[in-house]
Amino acid sequence: MAISLKLNGQTHTVESEPGTPLLWVIRDELKLTGTKFGCGVASCGACTVHMDGQPVRSCQTYIEDVEGAEITTIEKMEDDKVGAAVQQAWLELDVVQCGYCQSGQIMNAVGLLRENANPTAQDVDDYMHGNACRCATYQRIRAGVLRAAEILEA
Mind listing the pLDDT tens digit for each residue in 23-33? Predict the structure, then answer.
């Protein structure tokens, strides 16, 4: 089945079976590998992308549900004001340890900061709760989100 989707500002037509997760279309068909496979059941957040500006888990978002939607992946975040601030904060604070979960962490952090430009530490913990980090860098992730809010405020 042919599906048209807008990914990172470009329109693509892909041929996929109904029920194919968006994650596999992004990685296998469109060759953008920044979005990671973690658990496959939307529990870890490694596969987070934005659909029409909202964070979604691409492992449980099916290709037939995204026709006409605007999908944004980590590859496009540097061109986004909030995304660039988050990435700057991540670098400043050396948030990353192994890095595997970080694209999902960044995508979720951007979603938070778009909803709440001045979050508290508790707001960050609550919003980021569904994103797992095997290296347990949660304190650095929290600090990175709070730093990104400061960068955006300046």
Answer: 999 999 999 99
Whole-model pTM? 0.95
Mean pLDDT of 54-78: 95
Nearest to 106 by CA among 71, 80, 126: 80
Task: Tell me the backbone φ, ψ of residue 70, rounded to 5 degrees.
Answer: -95, 115
Give the CA angle between residues 72, 126, 136 to the nearest 5°. Answer: 80
Instruction: Report strand pairing: 48-51 vs 2-7.
Output: unpaired
CATH annotation of 2-76: 3.10.20.30
Closest CA to 25 of 68, 78, 71, 77: 71
> Which residue, 15, 37, 11, is CA-closest to 24?
37
Q: Is 97 helix (H, G, I), strand (E, B) or coil?
A: coil
- d(CA 112, CA 106) in angstroms, rounded, equals 10
CATH architecture of 80-153: Orthogonal Bundle (1.10)
d(CA 46, CA 64): 21
